[in-house]
Amino acid sequence: MSRPFLRICVALFSFWTLHGTAALAQSCIESRPDADIVVAIRDSPPFSSFDEDGVATGFSVRVWEKVARRLWKDLDAPPSARDIAAMSFEERKPLLRSVAYVSCETIDQQEAAMAQGLIDVVISPLTITAERMERYDFSQQFLSSGLTLALPHSNAIDFADATEVLIETVTQPGVVRAVVIFLTFNLIMAYLLRAALVVPEDEPSRGKVSSGMRYMLEATMRSIGVRGVDEAYYTNLSKVLEIFLAVVGTALSATILGVLTSAFVGSIGTHRAVDPRALTSMRIATLDCSTSQEFLREQYAALDPYFAEDDPARDAYEARLGHLACPRMEPTDTAATDVALPGEVVLTKRWVDAMHMLANGRVDGVLGDWVALTYLSRTDLFAGQVTVQPSVYRNEPYGWGIARKEGATELRAAIDRGLIAQMRDIDWRKNLEAELGAGAVSPN
Predict the structure, then answer these.
(1) Are 354 and 348 in contact (CB under 8 A)?
(2) Contact 187, 220 (CB under 8 A)
(3) 57 by DSSP, 3-state: which?
(4) What average pLDDT does range 57-63 have in this prediction?
(5) With 78 labelled, which of 101, 208, 219, 374 sits at a CA distance of 20 to 30 A?
(6) Each residue of 235-291: pLDDT tens digit?
(7) At 418, which helix (H) or strand (E)?
(8) How far apart are CA 44 and CA 443, in angstroms?
(9) pLDDT digit string (tens) for 376-397?
């Protein structure tokens, strides 16, 4: 490769860096930055955020940067190396599309900015829904998450949860059969050992039933490692068999104890899954204009038949339904409370704000994104204070929002090709879980 061409590549790479990851963010509702592609993010770790210097960072940002490096190739036919070498630097600039990041506080700000043409792509987590697809396009789905509930951590053991873990463990395919075969073999061996090799000649005669019960009890004790090696053996074979059974029985006992310990220790601080209908009687914090807010509104809407027109609580009920609508006339970070209704609804701009409320006892739970809540629960801010339900109320697909404007079809197709190439990488799942946490690919 010639030196002039290397200098050109370096110049192009420098131009990309200066107009990409290092770009400082402005508000997405101010004006459109001077860039080919304007990307909006909001503070939603681990997907997207801005560091102290205002530089965009997070999992979605890193994936976007990999995808964006090939956009100019997909959107324009790239010139040959000889043509590039003949161009001036000013002529080479348009070959690499510049990217600017802007900051949006809420989901509805992102959607409004897309509608006004101020931004082109939203890479913060957006759930793909039919209602949203009527207003803007989505990229290829790149992650599956869901709606779940975060609750205060407790040091108590949830015995019901421990029992479920034990049942799920022993009922796994093949486990029951393997245990039965192993125990049957072990008991037969122990019984034969006691019946044929161990009985001394001067032992008092017993009835068949009594002897059989005794043999079975001793066989059971040996099988689970309760009884050790007996000193009363008269043959080397009997001693070898007894040592074998003692070792196997001890291993079996350790395995059983390990399963029990794991089940009970793992159930410390867990909660029984909260029925979605019970959310209306709790103090719940959730993200403003999110699908979790809409889900909570659906639970309240289901209560409509229980409020008669002349019910004194009817007005309070309708006010809370209005508070859960999006968009609203009220600002975010407000709470809908009324003494006539149980529970409370607090809408926040960020998941971390809702989690702080939960950790401080301000609310009973946080209804929200499974990936975001489980990630935050493992951070130093909330570790040991917050527990997230392992199950979800419903699964949700994630994608990037793409504004409908001239060239949007080509942009979406190019983004999809880049995303699919990333997901086909053998390290995609490993990198995903390294950043978002173990099991982050999909909730239960």
Answers:
(1) yes
(2) yes
(3) strand
(4) 89
(5) 101
(6) 566 666 666 666 666 666 677 666 666 655 555 555 567 899 999 999 999 999 999
(7) helix 408-423
(8) 18
(9) 998 888 988 898 988 899 999 9
Q: Is there a contact between 149 and 299 (Cβ–Cβ < 8 Å)? A: no
- List all residues 6 or more positions away from 273 whose beta carbon is below 8 Å from its beta carbon: 389, 391
For tokens 């073999």, the residue is 185
pLDDT tens digit sequence for 400-424: 999 998 878 888 988 999 899 888 8
Q: Name the one residue in this structure whose structure tokens are 């409509």.
A: 304
The DSSP line for 346-400 is EEESSHHHHHHHHHTTSSSEEEEEHHHHHHHHTSTTTTTTEEE-SS-SEEEEEEE
Q: What residues contact residue 430 under an 8 Å CB cut-off, 6+ apart?
A: none
Calpha distance 50→23 (Å, rounded):
11
Among 135, 144, 396, residue whose Cα is nearest residue 291:
396
Kindly report the length of the chain.
444
For 422-439, letters b (16+ CB in 10 Å) and e give beeeeeeeeebeebbeee
- Whether residue 327 is preceded by a cis peptide bond, meaning omega within 30 degrees of 0, is yes
Question: How far apart, in whole angstroms, are the C-alpha atoms of residue 313 and residue 307?
Answer: 7
Q: In the prediction, which pLDDT does 148 show?
A: 94
Distance of CA 74 to the CA centre of its chain: 32
Dihedral (C-alpha) 372, 22, 122, 371: value to the nearest 10 degrees? -10
Query: Checking DSSP bridges between strand 37-41 and strand 121-127, what pairing results, if any?
Result: parallel
Confidence of residue 149 (pLDDT cuts 50, 70, 90): very high
Tell me the C-alpha distance between 349 and 211, whole Å. 75
What is the SS3 string spanning 274-304? CCHHHHHHCEEEEECCCHHHHHHHHHHHCCH
User: How many Å from the N-terminal Cα to the C-terminal Cα in the chain?
Assistant: 51
pLDDT digits (tens, 9 = 90+) for 291-319: 999 999 999 999 999 888 888 888 889 88
Q: Which tokens is 199 given? A: 């009985």
C-alpha 165/C-alpha 54 separation (Å) is 45
Cis previous bond, 46, omega within 30: yes
